[in-house]
Write a structure and sequence with these properties.
The structure is a single chain. 43% of the residues lie in helices and 22% in strands. The chain contains four helices and six strands, in the order E-E-E-H-E-H-E-H-H-E. The chain has a six-stranded mixed sheet, with helices on both faces. Strand 4 (58-63), helix 2 and strand 5 (93-97) form a beta-alpha-beta unit.
Length: 157
Amino acid sequence: MTGFRRGVRLGIDVGKARVGVARCDPDGMLAVPVETVPRDERSLARLAQLAEEYAPLEFVVGLPVNMQGADTPSTVDAREFAAALLRLTGIPVRMIDERLSTVSAHAALRSSGRNQKNSRSIVDQVAAVVLLQQAIDTEKSTGSPAGSVVQTDEEPS
């Protein structure tokens, strides 16, 4: 058993309109919201800035598969986004199954008294927290990192 790899991680929930960002402390005690980044041509650059600020060990990107575990159009989008993030930053990227992260995020917000309309701006951050916490908890309980490592087609320079 390898144990938990110490270091900050950034959790990324990739959506069509917004990208939720969360981070954890180096000991992986708690994932917390960072910000919601608008999904546009500046998204990756903003994530690169956040990476400079937090110096993460890795990015943990949610992989939105359907309930049967099959790919969806969003799965392809998330994989392409993760590969672009890796190419831009050179920081390792892991993709983890996020089937229930957005559902869990909405449920958590509802239980805290927020409705869907006034939580839209933070639901992506909460989804990123949920998926990052899941990745941390998995690594702590199994001794192995959650998910799969993103590879790029390009040879390192």
